[in-house]
């Protein structure tokens, strides 16, 4: 029997006005915004509905904003009759959205947690010290070896941070080491290497201080058994147990996001239909590059919501 997985986006999918269609469509979305503002103690809605792109780009605002819009999308979909998924998978921050959907985390706990996570990530490395770059077309093993070589040469960190899809890998680390990697990426077969506009070297060992602080916060929060399995970023394995999920969240902040391996895991589990819940279409594009046969829908606004609803309810 073919199964369904819902996928939840991470940083980079945000834009001013995201979620506005949901707020117009359903009181449920407005209630969720009220909940977010109450949990955070400031107006999140003002930041992502009316604020500036520069403000929204700040990690500690980006993360709660994307989480809120993704949970809006999921809850409105379920209310409209979409089936509860067989699995969920989030990309980096999106893992927290998936955990709210699977009832592992309460929404107010999750929103406070990702706000702090953003702060911890921002404060782990002084501004201007770290960098990230997307590397296209490289051989993964050769790229990993090149990272190790440059790290030794410079006595700095440069590591694989995201394995997104065939031919798309992100590296992270010290600015000079990442710059050197960008210059030499063709040695690993890369067609191009593009520096990314990010505020820090995420998913690298430079995030170790953030992992320690996140562990302290996670220890204060109750995690429940997942209503459906979450495929973890750090292992690409389905998890339901709260203690395993807690460990995965702590590790995830300084380890690579194994997105491609996670999608391949879902394909092995007979998942045929994927629905991206939240802003943007980044994950939909990656999934199609991993498996052209996959059925991919999105819930981002009124148009995509209606299209996904028609397609999903027709087959369920």
TrEMBL record:
GO terms for cellular component: cytosol. The active site is at residues 92, 203. It holds the Pfam family Acyl_transf_1. Residues 7-311 form the Malonyl-CoA:ACP transacylase (MAT) domain. Coiled coil: none annotated. The keyword Lyase does not apply. It comes from the Bacteria. Its EC number is 2.3.1.39. SMART domains: PKS_AT (SM00827). One of its GO terms (biological process) is fatty acid biosynthetic process. InterPro entries: Ac_transferase_dom_sf (IPR001227), Acyl_transferase_dom (IPR014043), Acyl_Trfase/lysoPLipase (IPR016035), Mal-CoA-ACP_Trans/PKS_FabD (IPR050858), Malonyl_CoA-ACP_transAc (IPR024925), Malonyl_CoA-ACP_transAc_FabD (IPR004410), Malonyl_transacylase_ACP-bd (IPR016036). GO terms for molecular function: [acyl-carrier-protein] S-malonyltransferase activity. Keywords: Acyltransferase, Transferase. It catalyses: holo-[ACP] + malonyl-CoA = malonyl-[ACP] + CoA. Gene3D superfamilies: Malonyl-CoA ACP transacylase, ACP-binding, Malonyl-Coenzyme A Acyl Carrier Protein, domain 2. Belongs to the fabD family. This is Malonyl CoA-acyl carrier protein transacylase. The lineage of its organism: Bacteria, Bacillati, Bacillota, Bacilli, Bacillales.
